[in-house]
# Entry
Amino acid sequence: MNYPNGMGGRGRNTQSNKKNNISFSNRGMSLEADINATNEYYLTRDLAVIHKKPTPVQIVKVNYPKRSAAVITEGYFKQASTTDYNGIYQKRHIDFEAKETNHKTRFPLANIHEHQINHMENVVRHGGICFLLIRFKPYQETYFVKADELISYWYDALKGGRKSVPYDTIKNIGYLTPFHYLKRVDYLRIIDRLYF
Amino acid sequence: MNYPNGMGGRGRNTQSNKKNNISFSNRGMSLEADINATNEYYLTRDLAVIHKKPTPVQIVKVNYPKRSAAVITEGYFKQASTTDYNGIYQKRHIDFEAKETNHKTRFPLANIHEHQINHMENVVRHGGICFLLIRFKPYQETYFVKADELISYWYDALKGGRKSVPYDTIKNIGYLTPFHYLKRVDYLRIIDRLYF
# Structure
């Protein structure tokens, strides 16, 4: 049934009010935005110094207009050769990757590239604290998974095994990160428990 | 006096031969290229895991042509909020900035931004190994200078003191990094001496 314009308008307003009522939750924020906010909190409280690395871009053409800033007019996204986040906490080197999935029952391993696996192996071998933050968007749950745990599943997949890790397995090998409105992915709490 | 073409040609050849004779030195390579080559050597020998962070770019417009890679058509260089290089060596967090100067007698402190000073202070306070690699291009000498040494000069300049650090002072507070054709800025040798 089609409503006249007025009704449609009111319908939309009602929906938008409903949306506002749940805006205190963390729904809709991307994992990256949540981690950046958390890192900012850690930094301002002087708890840890952890930053996201810039997106790797191959710069091909740059214009230098008079009296204004240089403009990149041709560039391409490059595949990252390392993880996205690193830094220092309690004298320890911290290194992690963040991934989110829309799946409800599994985390597809194709999300992680070979370069990143190699990098995580290097960091673990040299004594860093290395992990992944994996968010299942349908549940808004973010799990802390130690790199070496996930790496073994990745190699299994490479040898012809399952191409994904079941949600239940992630729940099992991982640790649910607490949500706090200022520390939206409070992964230091997990590190404290596991390493200190 | 102008020579006929033939002579000019021979003259150029002589020069070019002379240039070839000294091509075993590290003249002409940028500090960044030298450090990247050194880090690559460390990585392949499994000595340390240290990477340059990508150049921070603010991406404004992206084109998604059919059947080919996304093209960034408008982007701007952003000022780095951290140092350029970091990673892990012997379980320790490593963090450094690289700067080169054409000056023969001094290193201008305007080369280092406040954000970077703050970041270096943070890293030092949290127990990382933090330093600068400063190259005097006229001498092709690269000095390892501990972050806290340089930071004190930077604050002096802020309070109205000298806006640069004399070359002789850098020689005094810093450590000349050894040059090796594969490890062109062998800074781990200095770290071994100072921290282990």
In short: Chain A has six helices and ten strands. The CA atoms of residues 143 and 176 of chain A lie 4 Å apart. The beta strands of chain A are 49-52, 57-63, 71-77, 85-89, 92-101, 106-108, 129-136, 141-146, 164-166, 175-176.
